């Protein structure tokens, strides 16, 4: 069994890749600890769907958390993203949904239907908040699961104030 210390990041690779690169830059510059599941292997778009999914499963085998970068077109994606979300849910990975539009709660217009009622924290794309969620949501997720809770969660305004976020 693989050592699960990675974070699996899913996003619309055609449109939202810059947000992913910024996340990686924040981590590289000491913003937070981030061991990217994408570093496990290289799943190329030119490979067959079956081959890509095999590579993605290896990434999931090494992952302890799932982050979804939620952009304008994410909910409309039909190929790999819904499958990735299903994998995260089946593996009971803590899920952090990062709203690229800055919304502080679940965005029903952008969030894929499968995640609208699933246990996940929904946050805006802010470095301090992302670090906070990565540090704290896994324990909250575990406690909510223990108590049989589900659904979309968001942080109280006091968390934003404590982090210096307007």
UniProtKB/TrEMBL annotation:
Pfam families: ThsB_TIR. It comes from Bifidobacterium choloepi. InterPro entries: ThsB__TIR-like_domain. Residues 8-104 form the Thoeris protein ThsB TIR-like domain. This is Molecular chaperone Tir. It comes from the Bacteria.
């Amino acid at each position: 069994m693989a050592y699960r210390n990675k974070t699996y990041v899913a996003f619309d690779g055609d449109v939202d890749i810059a947000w992913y690169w910024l996340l990686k830059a924040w981590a590289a510059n000491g913003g937070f600890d981030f061991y990217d599941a994408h570093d496990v292997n290289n799943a190329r778009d030119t490979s067959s769907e079956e081959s890509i999914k095999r590579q993605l499963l290896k990434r999931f085998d090494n992952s302890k958390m799932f982050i979804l970068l939620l952009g304008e077109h994410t909910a409309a994606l039909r190929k790999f993203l819904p499958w990735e979300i299903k994998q995260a849910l089946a593996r009971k990975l803590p899920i952090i949904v990062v709203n690229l539009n800055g919304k502080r709660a679940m965005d029903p217009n952008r969030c894929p239907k499968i995640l609208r009622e699933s246990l996940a924290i929904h946050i805006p794309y802010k470095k301090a908040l992302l670090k906070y969620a990565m540090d704290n949501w896994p324990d909250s997720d575990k406690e909510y699961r223990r108590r049989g809770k589900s659904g979309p969660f968001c942080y109280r305004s006091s968390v934003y104030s404590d982090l210096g976020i307007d």
